[in-house]
């Protein structure tokens, strides 16, 4: 029966990770095991995120559980799921989490050679109003497998990451991931009935839609370059007579949602104020956007070249369609803003 809707040749994240291992010289299978731990953690977080409201309503967790403990907030729970599954994989040496002040250095007895920087549930302030949220991760290989792991293993440029991605918990659960060097970004949608991430977005490349995404509520803090660029896409240039097509404004306020749209449709996302974190928001998203044919900048240069000075370092970020990011960089050169 060759009915088109009965696809039987679907690919899964699990099979893609295994095939990548087979194609990689001297692959030990460690990254395969690590990525499967990330995938399992995201399935579990998805399950908990989707039940959270219900659990509160039906009182299973209510505001206190049987030990009369305050029910864990979703981002705390998501952090514990990520830390436990990553540590349990036996393939990690250093864990950096948005939820933890200090890095975790995995005990020698269960230590591996990878460092995972992650935000277990980014955008969690949006949970109660049903906005898409997500887990963001970036992976480094330790600098020296024979040395004691240290914070030096993660205070490195984003160009040294080996893999990065996010899992968005929205109308469906979608894992978007890139293996550095593949120049490919693939998206996989979770089929909760078979528990597999099934490939739904093959080799994502940015679209060309004229969309801009920025929190205009911060306009009073924008420097001359950002003001100049935003005005140039909202209003016709002085003396312009012809037809002017302004950009469309789209801002969710949850990074995974704003980046997912930018990856699929194109456009530009800007967070000029130094709010977003380098290791587990800026770097992973920059790797995805570059692999999908876009550009990711601080406004003055390639953001992946930054070296964070501490694990929760922040940076301004402008990313999306190459021409748009280059226009912002040009505004910085012209106005020499923020010097
Ligand atoms: P603002 C969510 O709190 C977050 O960390 C990112 O997911 C999002 O892009 C940004 O902050 C939104 O910040 O200041 O516009 O609410």
Automatic annotation (TrEMBL):
It comes from the Eukaryota. Transmembrane segments: none annotated. Residues 208-332 form the Fructose-1-6-bisphosphatase class 1 C-terminal domain. GO terms for cellular component: cytosol. It catalyses: beta-D-fructose 1,6-bisphosphate + H2O = beta-D-fructose 6-phosphate + phosphate. Residues 12-201 form the Fructose-1-6-bisphosphatase class I N-terminal domain. Its cofactor is Mg(2+). InterPro entries: FBPase_C_dom, FBPase_class-1, FBPase_N, FBPtase, Fructose_bisphosphatase_AS. One of its GO terms (molecular function) is fructose 1,6-bisphosphate 1-phosphatase activity. Pathway: Carbohydrate biosynthesis. Gene3D superfamilies: 3.40.190.80, Fructose-1,6-Bisphosphatase, subunit A, domain 1. It holds the Pfam family FBPase_C. Keywords: Carbohydrate metabolism, Hydrolase, Magnesium, Metal-binding. HAMAP family: FBPase_class1. Belongs to the FBPase class 1 family. This is Fructose-1,6-bisphosphatase. The gene is FBP1.
């Amino acid at each position: 029966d060759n009915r088109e809707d009965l696809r039987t040749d679907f690919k899964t994240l699990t099979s893609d990770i295994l095939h990548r291992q087979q194609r990689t010289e001297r692959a030990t299978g460690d990254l395969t095991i690590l990525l499967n731990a990330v995938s399992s953690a995201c399935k579990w977080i998805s399950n908990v995120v989707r039940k959270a409201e219900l659990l509160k309503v039906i009182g299973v967790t209510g505001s206190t559980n049987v030990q009369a403990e305050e029910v864990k907030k979703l981002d705390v729970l998501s952090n514990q799921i990520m830390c436990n599954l990553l540590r349990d994989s036996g393939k990690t040496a250093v864990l950096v989490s948005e939820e933890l002040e200090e890095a975790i250095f995995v005990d020698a007895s269960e230590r591996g050679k990878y460092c995972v920087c992650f935000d277990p549930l980014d955008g969690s302030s949006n949970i109660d109003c049903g906005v898409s949220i997500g887990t963001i991760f970036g992976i480094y290989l330790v600098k020296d497998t024979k040395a004691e792991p240290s914070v030096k293993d993660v205070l490195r440029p984003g160009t040294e990451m080996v893999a990065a991605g996010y899992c968005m918990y929205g109308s469906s659960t979608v894992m978007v991931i890139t293996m550095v060097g593949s120049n490919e970004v693939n998206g996989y949608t979770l089929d909760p009935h078979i528990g597999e991430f099934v490939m739904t977005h093959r080799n994502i490349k940015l679209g060309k839609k004229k969309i801009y995404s920025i929190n205009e509520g911060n306009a009073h803090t924008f420097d001359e370059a950002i003001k100049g660029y935003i005005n140039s896409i909202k209003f016709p240039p002085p003396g312009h007579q012809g037809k002017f097509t302004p950009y469309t404004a789209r801002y969710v306020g949850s990074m995974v949602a704003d980046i997912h749209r930018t990856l699929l449709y194109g456009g530009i996302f800007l967070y000029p104020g130094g709010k977003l974190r380098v290791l587990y928001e800026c770097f992973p998203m920059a790797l995805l956007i570059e692999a999908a044919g876009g550009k990711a900048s601080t406004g003055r240069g390639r953001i992946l070249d930054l070296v964070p000075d501490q694990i929760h370092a922040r940076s301004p970020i402008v990313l999306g369609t190459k021409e748009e990011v280059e226009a912002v960089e040009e505004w910085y050169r012209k106005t020499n803003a923020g010097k």
